[in-house]
Amino acid sequence: MPPSEQSEQQALVRWLIRHHITFFHVPNGGQRTARGGRAMKAAGVKPGVPDIVIIDPPPVGGYVGAVVELKKTVGGTVSDDQRAWLERFHARNWAATVAEGYRAARTWLEDLGY
Fold it and tell me: What pTM did the predictor assign?
C-alpha cells in the first residue's frame, strides 16, 4: 500500500526543517462540520491554497519563494482551485509545483538549489 499524503508531507516537513528552510503549512484540508467550515471561510481560508509555502527565495531561478501542492504517489488528484492557486503564485514569480510524494517534492526543491 502506498504511503498516505499525510506521511509524505511529514517526510517533506522533516527535510525542510533539517535544511533550515523557512516554510509553513496551510491547513486547508480535512473534514470539518458545516459550522466549522463557515467559520474558517469567514476567517479567510481559501480552497486550493498549496500545502507548503516556502518563503526563502530559491537559490536558483530568481523566484520570490516556492509553493508545493503535495499529493500521494498513487491516486492523487489536483482540483481546479489548486491549479488556479498554483497559476496565481507562478504569475507572481513564485516557483510552483504539484509533487507526487516526498521524493518528487525533494528533487524539485533540490533542483531549485535548496
Answer: 0.89
